[in-house]
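User: My collaborator sent over this chain with a note saying "see what the structure looks like." That's all I know about it. Can you take a look?
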Amino acid sequence: MHDPVPPSPISLVRLTTPLARRLSLRTLPLHTHEVLPTFAFYNFLNLYLSPTVSSRLFPRTYPHLPERTQKNWDAHVVSLVQSTFINAAALWVIRKDKERWAMGPGERVWGYTGAMGMVQAFSTGYFLWDLTAASSRIDVHGPGALAHAAAALAVSMFGFRPFCNYYGINFVLYELSTPFLNIHWFMDKLGMTGSTAQLINGIALLITFGGSRLVWGTFQNYRMYRDIWKAFNTTGGLPVPPWLAAVHMLASATLTGLNVVWFQKMVQTLLARFQKGEKKKDKKDR
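Assistant: Without extra context I'll predict from the sequence alone. Here is the result:
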């Protein structure tokens, strides 16, 4: 399936080809015109659009937040916009790309279509922004977010070799839980902590997070490792360099480990929050 976005200008392809060859990212010049504008847009959204719009939509909340919390708010706005968009794009490509459906084990490791490359490019643009944001303000985002951004960017960039581009689209669906996560955070800041709406959103968050990142993600990791092993041992096929398999598996393991830790924290936070609410309600009833 072809990339539905118009092709990159020839001048940009020629400009990025030498670097792409040096890094063995053969398909990157075909998608640089998607990576760079995505990175630029999320920077604009974070630095200018979110502060302006948030101040007007929530004049009693956003302007009075501490500077650190405002930065966190803006990052959550970017995350909400990105996750909503990339989920729609990935699901559309998964449904429409017939070439992708016909891929065997070797093609799932080395295969490429323009549409898959498009989703990979939009993801790369976001994770490039995410890495710069997390590294510049570790006090706001924390070391876990930095590790997540670095691992996700590495997996996205490998897709331009192309390597496991097929699975890159599947891993994008980790983001199915992210809108609920951001909404939950905004509810806290808007005085809706412990409300029925937040409880419903919290349940949706746990279901989508556990389903997309732990169940779906673990299954896709298993399938990917199995296909890599087959490609690694296929006589006459394209061999998988050991370093590439090791780095990719390390990045995937890092993401999985972070997801497990974050899921545990979510469960603990939600239980503590709503158990306190129930205790207060019981005292009032008495």
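A starting point for your reply to your collaborator: The chain has a mean pLDDT of 89.
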